[in-house]
Amino acid sequence: MMDQRWRPTVNEREFIEHALQSDLRIDGRRPFDFRKLKIAFGREDGSAEVELGETRVMGYVTAQLVQPYKDRPNEGTLAIFTEFSPMADPAFEPGRPGEAAIELGRVIDRGLRESRAVDMESLCVVAGKHVWSVRVDLHILDNGGNLIDAANIAALAALCTFRRPECTVGGDDGQQVTVHDPEVRDPLPLAIHHLPIAVTFAYFGDGNIMVLDPTYKEEAVMGGRMTATINSNGDVCSIQKAGGEGVTSSVIMQCLRIASVKAADITSKIKSNVDEYTTEKAVRKVKRTPVLVAKKNDVPDITMESNDGALESQTSKTPNDAQDTSKDPPAKPNDKRHEDAKSRLSESNLDVESMPNSGIAGESDEAKESVSPKSLKDAVKPKHKRKKKQHGKS
Amino acid sequence: MERAEGRKANQLRKYSCTRNPLGRAHGSARWEQGGTAVVAAVYGPRPGTRKGENPEKASIEVVWKPMTGQSGRQEKEYEMTLKRTLQSICLLTVHPNTTTSVILQVMSDDGSLLPCAINASCAALAFAGIPLKHLAVAIGCGVLENGDVILDTSKAEEKQLKSFAHLVFPNSSKSVDLKESQQKDGQSERGLITSITHGVMSEEDYFNCIERGLAASSRISDFMRTTLQKHTPDYL
């Protein structure tokens, strides 16, 4: 198969370079502007999806109990796995990671491990025998340029929201480890001391023009790249400059100063997103059962609407090339029912009746609903034995 | 058996389809069914076929990426199932000697993962403009102890059930809205494209699954139709 890498034309290359000499970038940004950053969290703890402009990365954290390394018997381990999925770029081949993937993994690994961002000693359960091994999987979904920064943010966001199961040591010899189910005992967050943020610069011309957060077109044209990993305290956790144009030390110092400002910015964004997610999750846990009662009463009303209503309760979102997220009008009846978007109740009342003798779908829906009050009570008799259900919402 | 959150036996979880979330891919779709979410990206048709593939037809290549860990046998099985399913819905003779790659990334898994992935890939192929004969609509059905069939199984349910099946049907030709067509649909022959079962079930249970699955697939295929039609320009 042919090499699928995108190559810029001579015109594109010249245009990008000339525009930069007037401090103009092809997407309209200024040289030291980051693209728009969006962090979203998945259903599970420890899963985060980051969008940095057009670049999308998903981070997923898992942990398991393993034997520690012989030379560090009371420390847990942290491992970063990056795979450049062929989904992100036609140039990425499936199979063994290429050098870019390995470089990305190493830069993020150095930033986290050597700066001791994640506390390893708190991951020890039984010294020398059982420690938690934390694994971070980074999946590149869309390569819009500057994968290192985006992947780093995804890893940090996922680590911040990850919860590991609680375990107790007991038994006769004090060596028995019981791992508690997350439903029984709340899982614990990782101890994270600080957030090392990677900030990437691209060099053009003779090393005197630099821009922050290059897009993939700029990356194809750049003369060299430097990544500085800095935290909000101003500590430089790692610097990566692998070849490329030579750059004077004054320029590097200027870059580091800019990077530290941007790092503080991004750190606060990550923290606010993580806090928002954790409070929303906590609220959802409390509200879960009482809402079950309130919501179910709505169900008969919804199915009484025309069949259109039932069908349109599926949302079809379109974040299109036009970059506007338009929610379709049919989704509006949903918003009403969705005051508590948190409760993932079956808003979709797709009663699919396939028994031919029970007639047409519409009728059978209504027939089912009349039976439902009985089954509703059964459903509401919750198996959730949480005491929290007493603190219902009003 | 009581289902989580009071779902009835025939009730599907809330599903949604996002069109072209990715910028680089030629076509992409994010399909969510309850807690299960899969992103599918399509690149193609690209010139050349792999060794061993028939150059007189287009070939489909599938890459499945799990959430964590290495790609193992389970992933290879999914890739093979998807490849065969998608091969049967694509018009392979329109672009001979080309390869269309479908890459899937599991974003979260709460049961019915394979059906979700098939729906996502079918939508992604349509958004990429790959010529298709018809759509492939997938649904997961579980069989309870007493022989009842439940639709759209979640992960917890799949663990408990003694058997469940993932079924793929072609999309229905008429909308379910029209009441007359309801009877017509039942009579017209809509063959099963793919069926993967887990566990032991009786023949009768299996046929029940197919019947229920067929009805559910009409709903989902209607949803797909509205999603795709919404974005066709007026002049088409």
Kindly summarize this structure in a few lines.
The complex is a heterodimer of chains A (394) and B (236). Chain A is of the alpha+beta class and 394 residues long. Chain A is 34% helix and 23% strand.
Structural notes for this entry:
The complex is a heterodimer of chains A (394) and B (236). The model of chain A is unreliable at 291-373, 377-382 and 384-394 (pLDDT under 50). By secondary structure, chain A is an alpha+beta fold. In chain A, strands 1, 2, 3, 4, 5 and 6 form a 6-stranded mixed β-sheet that branches. Chain A is built from 9 helices and 16 strands. Residues 180-188 of chain B have low confidence and may be disordered. The longest helix of chain B has 27 residues, at 203-229. In chain B, a hairpin with a 2-residue loop joins strand 2 and strand 3. Classes of the chains: A alpha+beta (394), B alpha+beta (236). Chains A and B meet through strand 3, strand 6, helix 7, strand 15 and helix 9 of A and strand 1, strand 3, strand 5, helix 4 and helix 5 of B. Strand 15 (315-319) of chain A pairs parallel with strand 1 (15-19) of chain B, so a sheet runs across the interface.
N- to C-terminal distance of chain B: 48 Å
Low-confidence stretches of chain B: 180-188
As an assembly, this protein is heterodimer
Q: Can you write the helix and strand succession of chain B as a string? A: EEEEHEHEEHEHEH
Supply Rg of chain B. Answer: 18 Å
**Most extensive interface: pair and counts?**
A-B, 68 and 63 residues
Strand composition percent of chain B:
25-35%
Broad structural category of chain A: alpha+beta
How much of the sequence of chain A is in beta strands? 15-25%
Shape of chain A: elongated
Number of strands of chain B: 9
Number of helices of chain B: 5
